[in-house]
Amino acid sequence: MPSYNSWSISFGGGIPFMQQADLKSIQSGNTLVGYSAYFSIDKALSHTFGLKLQYDRGETRQGYFNTKDAAPANAAANLQVAGRTQYDGISLIGDVNLSNLLRRVDRKADFRWAIHGYAGVGVLAYRAYQKDEFGQRLMTENKPFKFNSLFGQAGAGLKYKISNRVDIEGRLMYVVTGDDAFDGGGDQYSAVNSISAKHSDNFFNATLGLSINLGKNANHIMWVDPLKDIYNRIDELETKVDNIQLCKSGDADNDGVCDDWDRQLDTPAGARVDGAGVALDVDMDGVIDLYDKCVTVPGPVENNGCPTTTSNNGLVSENETKLDGIEFDLNSDRILPSSNPILNSAISYINSSNDSYTVVGATDTRGTDAYNQTLSERRASNVKQYLINNGVQSSRIDIQGNGKHDLKYPECDPASKCPEWKNRANRRVYFKAK
């Protein structure tokens, strides 16, 4: 399995706004702008979850202008109290990659955008100042780091992947200080802090920053499709198995049965065989399935294994083709590696005949008509492209999507009525002669 980077550092800056305190950053048409900055060391524990050890530094600025409420007894009628708070915070923050929880696993494009959710707790130290109507600046609170000076913050961020090493991110965090004196209005019983009762001094912090991904590997795990590696591993194992020489005596006809046990050493290429290496002839009419146009219905050799009289106007049903085993995962148009031998057999079958065919795609009954119609067309299109890429003339193949109205097991409507193996059999592709 590939290795991925899991460490990074992040830093950025922004503007804090205090809107739920007695002294506010936006009040009566006036806006007092502070600043904030952060630095964090980040560790991704999986493609969806990580932890941040973050240091925050900033200053909020807030005021109380021309209030209509009762002013403190020691203030003028047109009260103009200004406060500012310089703060430092150290916190441990959980990071949830919401986009990786919701991505479609069959998406082929690289991920460039991601939504993250954050929540954490830490300790807070601050120095709060107040400037009164006479311009005097007074320190109203000086609170150092203590174990009981807890604060919390939570919010969301939108990340964009600039390169494998650098991400840019905008965040909006809500900071809960848990301290009524944080806004610079004095202690919780002061005149300013009695203007609006029970207002906690929390604030919003909007920031823009960068994340630098560390490590020797190409990609960071937070930008990884969780199932991409599994698919790659399956393909790799399929290739390795194909390349292993299992038979010491050899396999002259490449049918998967060693010559020591093969009762038919000249099996045609692409023919399915039984355990003894004999080409399959399901209807036992003397025409092996590879060349039999009616696999399940006996017929003479001179009519390619089909009855001399038919009532289906020349249509070849899916049970009479070499594509019975082409099935798909739920909500996916990806051809599974296990289907390649069946498709290769179909290529030989088509190239040995003079007919043209329609590749028909179908789905199970989950989802809407429109979605399943599009999905069935994509499945048929992928099978057609595989055949063309491996030697079938494109003019002999077209596609048809039947959506969820072409069920191999009609009793599976709705899908909850059936076991999963029947629903999987309904998600399929088969041929129809033109």
TrEMBL record:
UniProt entry keywords in alphabetical sequence: Cell outer membrane, Ion transport, Membrane, Porin, Transmembrane, Transmembrane beta strand, Transport
Subcellular location: Cell outer membrane
Domain OmpA-like: 316-434
Membrane topology annotation: Multi-pass membrane protein
UniProt cross-references to InterPro entries, sorted A to Z: Bact_OuterMem_StrucFunc, OMP/PagP_B-barrel, OMP_bac, OmpA-like, OMPA-like_CS, OmpA-like_sf, TSP_type-3_rpt
Main location: membrane
Highest taxon, organism lineage: Bacteria
PROSITE patterns, alphabetized: OMPA_1, OMPA_2
Pfam families to which the protein is assigned, alphabetical: OmpA (PF00691)
Protein's UniProt name: OmpA-like domain-containing protein
